[in-house]
Amino acid sequence: MTMKEEKTYRQEAVVPDRGLPFKLFRFEGADGKYIREAHQHCSVEIFAVREGKADAYLGDKKYVLSAGEFVIVNSNEVHSIHTSGRNEAIVLQIPMEKQIMRFSGEKREEDEKLFALLEKMYRQQIRKEYGYELLMQSIFYQLKYLLITVYQMPDESKEHCTENRKMGHLGKITGYLQEHYAEEISLETLAATFGYCPTYLSKMFRRYGRINYKDYLRSIRFEHALRELEETDLTIGEIALKNGFPNSQAFSRLFREKYGILPTEYQRRQ
Questions:
Q1: Which phi-psi region, left, alpha or beta, contains residue 32 (left: φ > 0; alpha: ψ -120 to 50)?
Q2: pLDDT tens column, 259-269
Q3: Distance between CA atoms of residues 90 and 81, nearest Å
Q4: Distance between CA atoms of 31 and 152, rounded to whole angstroms?
Q5: What pLDDT is attached to residue 18?
Q6: What does the alpha-carbon distance between residue 39 and residue 78 come to, in Å, rounded to a whole number?
Q7: Rounded distance, CA 118 to CA 112, Å?
Q8: What distance in Å separates the CA atoms of residue 64 and residue 69, rounded to the nearest whole number?
Q9: Distance of alpha carbon 175 from alpha carbon 69, whole angstroms
């Protein structure tokens, strides 16, 4: 199936790194051929190639990236990554639930400076020296300032402004879920909190998020649960309850449906 033939794209939850206002990670396809299928999320994403090459698809546009180059993916922009050979890339995701901005990925004189800031953040993340979170945030705000002053685009049309407002409303709701994911939150409760009727809120998720409310909330819980499985010695039951699942049995069943293995097996592999 070609990029133009794809019709459905899933909204993904982006959970920032612990104690930081962003998520920074090494691209999974660093050791060889890899395809990250088309998807979208509420975060602005910078995909930067450190070594090798990668093909980035933004909508129906293809960008061939070499070492030292990057693309900027706007909030809720459908994108995918294809790699054929060995490569290494870093990905910075900046949640934008409460503020909708659009950025241009066209080449600028400041590209080298932005890439250098990304590289500096990545090196600090690897070292994790005492107090590195403060240094990471300092570098991040330099990068964000560069994005806003150099790469930000003006709204192009009234239609785009209307779409931004709709996504802004949904962004506030998903931001609330990011903060309260461990609580028992029904669609009815969430709708009442934001002054919507449940049916309208459900349609908003499906239309603008391409995902239903329950699956989105569950994806946030899984992101946090995965981190607990990787970084702590908590039991499966403790992780389940801490992250909004009713019990260990339900958590294990849903985990296997999503990842193909039980959380106990995933924990052992870590």
A1: left
A2: 889 999 988 88
A3: 12
A4: 33
A5: 84
A6: 5
A7: 10
A8: 9
A9: 31
Residue 90 phi, psi (nearest 5): -115, 145
Tell me how far apart the terminal alpha carbons of the chain are, to the nearest angstrom.
34
**What are the residues whose beta carbons fall under 8 Å from the beta carbon of 20, sequence distance 6 or more?**
133, 136, 137, 140
Residue 122: other Cβ atoms inside 10 A: 20
Three-state secondary structure readout of the chain? CCHHHCCCCCEECCCCCCCCCCEEEECHHHHCCEEEEEEEECEEEEEEEEECEEEEEECCEEEEEECCCEEEECCCCCEEEEECCCCEEEEEEEECCCCCCEECCCCCCCHHHHHHHHHHHHHHHHHCCCCHHHHHHHHHHHHHHHHHHHHEECCCCHHHHHHHHHHHHHHHHHHHHHHHCCCCCCHHHHHHHHCCCHHHHHHHHHHHHCCCHHHHHHHHHHHHHHHHHHHCCCCHHHHHHHCCCCCHHHHHHHHHHHHCCCHHHHHHHC
At residue 3 the predicted structure's pLDDT band, cuts being 50, 70 and 90, is very low
Contacts of 157 (CB under 8 A, 6+ apart): none
- Pick the more confident residue, 113 or 30: 113
Spatial separation of the C-alpha atoms in residues 28 and 182, rounded to whole Å: 28
Q: What is the mean pLDDT of residues 1-24?
A: 67
pLDDT on residue 225: 93
Is residue 86 over pLDDT 80?
yes
Q: Residue 174's pLDDT band (boundaries 50, 70, 90)?
A: confident
CA 219 to the chain's CA centroid: 11
- Give, in order, the Cα–Cα distances in Å from 189 to each of 93, 102, 176: 29, 32, 12
* Distance between CA atoms of residues 245 and 181, nearest Å: 10
